[in-house]
Amino acid sequence: MKKQKLIIFDTTLRDGEQSPGASMTRDEKLRVAKALEKLRVDVIEAGFAVSSPGDFASVKAIAETIKDSTVCSLARAKNQDIDSAAEALKGASSGRIHTFIATSPIHMKYKLQMNPDQVFEQAVSAVKYARNLIDDVEFSLEDASRSDFDFMCRVIEGVIGAGAKTINLPDTVGYGFPEEYANTIGRLIESIPNSDKAIFSVHCHNDLGLAVSNSLAAVMKGARQIECTINGLGERAGNAALEEVVMAVRTRKDIFPVETRIETIHITSTSRLVSSITGFPVQPNKAIVGANAFAHESGIHQDGVLKFRETYEIMSAQDVGLQTNKIVLGKLSGRAAFAARLEELGTHFESKTEMNEAFAKFKDLADKKREIYDEDLQALVSEVQLDESNGDQITLEALEVISKTGRPPSATLTLKYKGESYDSSSEGDGPVDAAFKAIEKLAKSDTELKLYSVNAVTAGTDSQGEVTVRLEKGGRIVNGQGADTDVLVASVRAYLHALNLIQNPDRLHPQLDGI
Ligand code: KIV
Ligand code: ZN
Question: What predicted TM-score, i.e. pTM, was given to this entire model?
Answer without folding.
Answer: 0.87
